[in-house]
Amino acid sequence: MAGVWIIAEQRDGDFRKITFEAASAAKKVADEVGGEVTALVLGSGMGDKCAELGKYGVAKVLCVDDASLADYTTDAYANAAAALIKDGAPDVVLLGASMQGKDLGGRLAAKLDTGIAVDCTALAVTDGKLVATRPMYAGKVYADVVVNGSPQIASLRPNVFDVVEVGGEAAVEAASVDLGEIKAAVVDKLVAEEGKIDLTEANIIVSGGRGVKEAENFDIIEELAGKLGAAVGASRSAVDAGWRPHTDQVGQTGKVVTPNLYVACGISGAIQHLAGMGSSKVIVAINKDADAPIHSKADFCVVGDLFDVVPELSKEVDK
To answer: What is the Cα gyration radius of the chain?
Structure first.
């Protein structure tokens, strides 16, 4: 392989956790084939932070600093990334399967006339080709995928790949590129309340479903989450009922999450919800229905009324 590249993801000038996960995964792939990792950083005012990617195995950073790249837009980022990748000709390009990465990955693959393996949970190298493992059919099966074409592009499911610090600083090189026609612009931002943990980056999530019964009852979910330092999630039924905003929805039509601990409160476990959280490392299900599908997926099952169990859990956490 000529090289392994990652497309770093940043928001408001700070790298997202998925960037470090992608860098660590890329370093592992590069070590197997004897290559180096290059990170492509698109943004504005990111120059001083680029060298820190060396801690995660990045040897070189190509930094494109442009005011038009301060906020993510599909056209600007896809045009810039495609031009630099064509020039650098890496064999593998990795990026996060975040909301941004899902939007960028498909457009980038089309511009480069290659394929993409999306939402991958494992990577390997066989006969000089990248083999990506990804879930299919709402997580019922896992497929090993080889992309025909060059570069091979894969997007990585957040919170699945370990962040490994190897030390060192990356060599930073300023790069310039024609951004082409930019048809969209960010005109306003609706920022989540300060201190709210992003679901896709949370190590612990406490979610509520139809069994919570009404919006006000999410207070006990919020209380337990606060004591655990967790993010609050919700099933689609809770969101459709107006009890929680769509940004809190976990599931196939919401956010795919992979925390270390997922606590499902009053969630039956429809296949669409399981597709969004089934890869969590430890799952605790609290549901008074012993036959609820969520129990078949959980590592720990509590058959009981969430209004009795969750407050007791909060008390135990205090102890």
So the answer is: 21
Residues 6+ apart with CB under 8 A from 206: 221, 224, 225, 228, 230, 231, 232, 233, 263, 265
Are residues 102 and 19 part of one domain? yes
Residue 194 lies in a domain: no
Quick check: 2 pLDDT over 80? no
Mean pLDDT of 183-206: 85
| Within-domain flag for 219 | yes
Whether 132 and 208 map to the same domain: the answer is: no
**Residues 167, 218: one domain?**
no
pLDDT band with cut points at 50, 70 and 90 for residue 249: very high
Check: CB of residue 221 under 8 Å from CB of residue 212: yes
Average pLDDT over residues 204-214: 96
pLDDT given at position 252: 85
What burial letters (b/e) apply to 79-108, b meaning 16+ CB within 10 Å? bbbbbbbeebebbbbbbbbbebbeebbbbb
Q: What is the DSSP letter of 196?
A: P
Measure the CA–CA gap between 79 and 107, rounded to whole angstroms.
9
Gap between the Cα atoms of 237 and 208, Å rounded: 10
Q: Which two three-digit tokens encode residue 103?
A: 């939007």
What range does the domain containing 154 cover? 4-174
Write out pLDDT tens, residues 276-285: 999 899 999 9
pTM (predicted TM-score): 0.85
Give the model's pLDDT for residue 137. 84
Q: How far apart are the C-alpha atoms of 263 and 234, rounded to whole Å?
A: 11
Residue 100 within any structural domain of the chain: yes
CA 163 – CA 169 distance, rounded (Å): 16
Total number of domains constituting the chain: 2
Enter the tokens of residue 85.
Answer: 């990748």
Tokens 């494109």 sit at which residue? 64
